[in-house]
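dumping the sequnces here before i forget
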Amino acid sequence: MTNAQSPAKEAAPGVMAQAVKEGLFAGILAFGMFLLYVGIETYQNIDNALVWRTRWGLLAIFVAVSAIGRFLVVGFFKPRIDRRKLAKAKAGIPEVSDDKGFFHRNFLKIAMLALVLYPPVVVSLYGVQGSLKFVDNFGIQILIYVMLAWGLNVVVGLAGLLDLGYVAFYAVGAYSYALLSQTFGLSFWVLLPMAGILAAFWGIILGFPVLRLRGDYLAIVTLAFGEIIRLVLMNWTEVTGGTAGISGIAKASIFGIWSFDVGASNNFARSFGLPMSSAYYKIFLFYVILALCLITAYVTIKLRSMPIGRAWEALREDEIACRSLGIDTVKTKLTAFAIGAMFGGFAGSFFAARQGFVSPESFVFLESAVILAIVVLGGMGSLTGIAVAAIVMVGGTELLREMEFLKHVFGEDFTPELYRMLLFGLAMVAVMLFKPRGFVGSRQPTAFLKERKSVSGSFTKEGHG
Amino acid sequence: MTSGNTTMTRDTILKVEHLSMRFGGLMAINDLSLEARRGEITALIGPNGAGKTTVFNCITGFYKPTMGMITMNRRNGEQHLLERLSDFEITKKAKVARTFQNIRLFSGLTVLENLLVAQHNKLMKASGYTVMGLLGIGSYKREAEGSIELARQWLEKADLIDRADDPAGDLPYGAQRRLEIARAMCTGPELLCLDEPAAGLNPKESLALNTLLNSIRDETGTSILLIEHDMSVVMEISDHVVVLEYGQKISDGTPDHVKNDPKVIAAYLGVDDDELEEVMHEELDGGSL
Ligand SMILES: Nc1ncnc2c1ncn2[C@@H]1O[C@H](COP(=O)(O)OP(=O)(O)O)[C@@H](O)[C@H]1O
Ligand SMILES: [Mg+2]
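..and the predicted 3d for all of it:
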């Protein structure tokens, strides 16, 4: 089966003939493939004997879908895509189009406004108690992942170091808050920076031996470190509570002025004469994580245009060239590791304050993989792309939980969220097929002489570790 | 860029003594001694596989030599033993910059950004190792503007100013070569080591390269150590030529002297037909690293 296409318009009849041919071929292929799998079904009859029956109708549907699908793709979609590409090439427009509409230009402002207004709008629509689900599951949950992915982006997207154990720093942050607040009774606002510093410290300690490795080796060792931290948390029972974890972690307060503890005299709801609800705490947390995300974004953007950030990106492009320019690559890598870890630590302490409970369960490798997937899907290095990827991926997962109606389709024991990994995988494959560089594949230069032109993803590299 | 030192001091900037480099059983460099003089273009020539790139890698710290001593005399009187420094320190402290036989640009960064990365150490210091720069204290802003200005100067010299905001990977080959040289110059070197800068260039690009190299020597006083395959380029621009064959020095002197040295002619043209064919073959193949 050849995919050779004559792109010009005059070849249209040829294209149709080709489409029919390929459609038929696909149909025959599908028939051959599905004849035994779909066309024939085996089952046990009442006597427990294995018998078979045919399902010609279903087989016909399979074959028809394949044949018609192939016909449409070859006959209509491909020529159209080719034509569009040709027109683009003729007009000299690069793949990344520069024409920006109102929405595009003011994207950041609109997004900010929407995020700030999100809790009040939800409260006014669903009531205080009803807003809980939206603010917590959709708002806070997504923003935590946005922050984690932005933190990991410094390491993977900018410096090009493949870190598969990022969740370790998230854990360090969470346990730092949990343990220090229980032992010393320190408040969230004191411990938040401390958790970040501790995580950065661990980032440097882990980074020192590891960063001499490159590529696959680095990935494997960081993965191992992630697991080691988790195993320590699981087995050092006297301190960490083992698999049972730590519960009853203090809540964050509004800078010590209002508290969210039910018994406290300065309880937020009581002070304002509002009915008791945990929703206020969640709304408060929403703004806290939103602020944390903004700080992360601000620092990342600032650092990118500073020498250190440029060195990170240069490191991703070519480590040897960096060294030939007098850049200490080990130190540069360590700073990337430390900064990324610090953001992970912030997110971790926030997570602990939000849950009121931490256990090693929350810091499994799968979390690292999800965060990394978000970074890759978003387009390595692009904050906007990563935020979109986090919304799609995490929001999508939460949506699955909501899809009760699927139970009516697939039966009572169908739990849709169990399929989230499958969907994650499918989304990954789809994005990598159509946008191999992620949602936002181009990179914004950090300095320019005449005009800022975004750099197409085909020039940037992913790094070698 | 260093302040224009117009008085050409004739002293030695780089001294290589009894340098040897062994790869397993292969003696890639065997007891090589050579000198490069300040303010001059010194060329290192020889057939493919003679060990030229290996010499460069030893000088710039990418290989640790098996034996020998490499001394860099800086303008301010500092002496550095290069075999004891690691690769990035050689650029940072001893002020030796290099380019690569197979161009190594940051292809996803713009041309301008490539030149800014080269000024990393200076800018890091000015930004108080990022902390002060992040808080907006200190001289970072001024220094950052200065670094863009320096980059602009080099872009003009290298005739790349129109492509300043394009990705480096998008440039034609000759422009990439010039960019790599401009980038090395932005580290402010006293000695610039160029590994086959003319390889693969068309005659026009080759000419532009010669202009750039001459202007580097004459306007900045930077000494140049140059590996070259193409004899015509070497003869045109170098002040001093060292010829290498099988890791050993076979001739050393002015271009005229070297050109007429029977040993060099034998090395380049071969003594019998077999070798001649081999040399021709290598000439056609161009470079390798
Ligand atoms: N890293 C290395 N490992 C093993 N052999 C090497 C290495 N680098 C260079 N060589 C060998 O050293 C010899 C000199 O190579 P090179 O310096 O690249 O030659 P030139 O640059 O003069 O063409 C060659 O035989 C080459 O195969
Ligand atoms: Mg070579």
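Residues B 52-53, 101, 287, 289 surround magnesium ion (ligand 2) (CB under 6 Å).
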